[in-house]
Amino acid sequence: MDPTIGWYQPEQIGRAQKLWSQIWEAQLGMENMNLNNSNPNLENKAPEYISLSVTNNFDQKLGPVNKPQNNVIHSNNGLGLGKRKRENKASTYGLNQNVQFLSDNSGLAPWRNRDQYTPGVIGLHEEIEDFYKYMSPRPEEHQMRNEVVQRIRSIISDIWPSAKVEIFGSFRTGLYLPTSDIDLVVIGNWEKLPLWTLEKAIQRQRIAMPDTIKVLDKASVPIIKLTDKETEVKVDISFNMSNGVKSAELITKFIKIYPSLPFLVLVLKQFLLQRDLNEVFTGGISSYSLILLTVSFLQLHPRYNASQPSSNLGVLLIEFFELYGRHFNYLKTGIRVRDGGAYIAKEEVQKDMTDGYRPSLLCIEDPLNPSNDIGRSSYGALNVKQAFEYAYLVLSHAVNSQNQAFFSKNNSVIGRIVRVTDEVVQYRRWMQKSFPVLTVSAASPLAGSSGRTYASVANTLSQSSQHIANGNVKLDNRPQEESWTS
After folding, report:
1. CA-CA distances (angstroms) from residue 284 to 181, 213, 320, 377, 399?
2. Cα-flanking dihedrals φ and ψ of residue 168, to 5°?
3. What per-residue string of b and e applies to 462-476 under the rule 16 or more CB within 10 Å gives b?
4. Angle, in degrees to the nearest 10, between helices 242-257 and 287-299
């Protein structure tokens, strides 16, 4: 089984699975052997998978710290925490080597707050609702990100007092995961984009981890990438890209039109994130592309009630995976979401494209600029298609009424394709403790019905991020007693 795509399901675990796993690991061991030291390069060969066999012990001073379990052998089979896992706290790469998390399907599923879910697609719908409530931004997470924005804005305003900092992307729309990055755009007047000037200023202020600051001046959209030293939040900074803000506003409008959109998007973003398919340069697709795929799916759904609040989220999720994992013709068809949405021939898309560009494999017409193909750089779109097909097969098998006898009633259906690692859980606990938000009183405008969730409060607070970006809000000067380190 490809460790980048999936893992063993509870009913597959047993003696036969253990035997074949041992045979597979033995084969990997033979491939990694250095016979008589004849080829020293073999010693540096990357492991085929990365172990998640760690316990996350929370350090009150430094935050969560990963420590290997005593009963796990790392040296004999090339297991161990590598760079890939450290950079992505949500990664489930190598989960098959940790059967204790898979045996009853309850491990790494902290969103489950019921003893038992209804069998079939109704239970899947219930789980998606619980997953959304659990993974939605909490006020503390929103507060932490606002402080990161304020630190960067202060540096920018010191260099260019007239420059304007805008937030866009998932932080602006509210569709972000606990480990999602922050997208910022600096609006100002320069003859040449001052990427290196800002990079040097950030280095001097020491707000970012030194080895994480990167200037991508040759990219189609030049940006500065960094990771905040205090919070480990990743930040992308671009210049004079006003379309980013307009795109976020467009997504906000789609959320109002399609109530099921945020539920599906959070599940899909987590699904791609833990497989390292959430960014173009890792062989996946961008968050914006994923959202437009979901919007198109809802726009062109054959059932009129698919966009209604009463629609079954489990059915919609399976149908999404079926469409883009099995039926969609990536070679000939492009996607359009403006004017109500449509599937269009790539030949038609090319008519509007400039500079000799051709439609990409995943061709999504930019709703704000028809001459731009949003999926242009998604060279690994087929990897995403393969993952979607896998998810369709797993979920459709799990909700089939004829297969219910094989499954335990305590099994998680969505947990067959999505997990939340202990590292992410501990990271969220650290954020909640380190960035407290004042309790909302009954008289406060934020106080609402008893059904109000973290997500709804965070969405209400979302405008504060814009005030901070424009310098209209001054954060408190409380001392930071803790910092997060891996």
Report:
1. 16, 22, 17, 10, 27
2. -140, -170
3. beebbebbeeeeeee
4. 30
Q: Report helix, strand or coil for 227.
A: strand
Bridge partners of 165? 186
The whole-model pTM stands at 0.78
CA-angle at 454, arms to 143 and 447, nearest 5°: 95
What is the rounded CA–CA span in Å between residue 333 and residue 112? 39
Q: What angle do CA 415, 401, 111 make, to 5 degrees?
A: 20
Q: How far apart are CA 431 and CA 64, in angstroms?
A: 11
What b/e sequence results for 189-205 when a residue is b if at least 16 CB atoms lie within 10 Å of its CB, and e otherwise?
A: eeeebbbeebbebbeee
Task: Give bridge partners of residue 55 from the DSSP assignment.
Answer: 67
CA distance 316 to 7: 23
3-class DSSP state of 30? helix
In angstroms, rounded to a whole number, what is the distance separating the alpha carbons of residues 282 and 394? 24
Parallel, antiparallel, or unpaired for β 342-345 and 333-336? antiparallel
β-partners of residue 373 are 365
Average pLDDT of adjacent 10-residue blocks, the chain of 486 residues: 67 72 75 54 47 42 39 30 61 71 66 87 95 95 95 96 94 95 94 93 93 89 93 94 92 96 97 92 91 97 89 96 96 94 89 73 92 87 94 93 68 89 92 80 36 40 45 40 42
Strands (E), 299-376: 333-336, 342-345, 363-366, 369-373
At residue 181, the 3 state secondary structure works out as: coil
61 CB burial (10 A radius; 0-12, 13-18, 19+): exposed
| Token couple for 345 | 């021939």
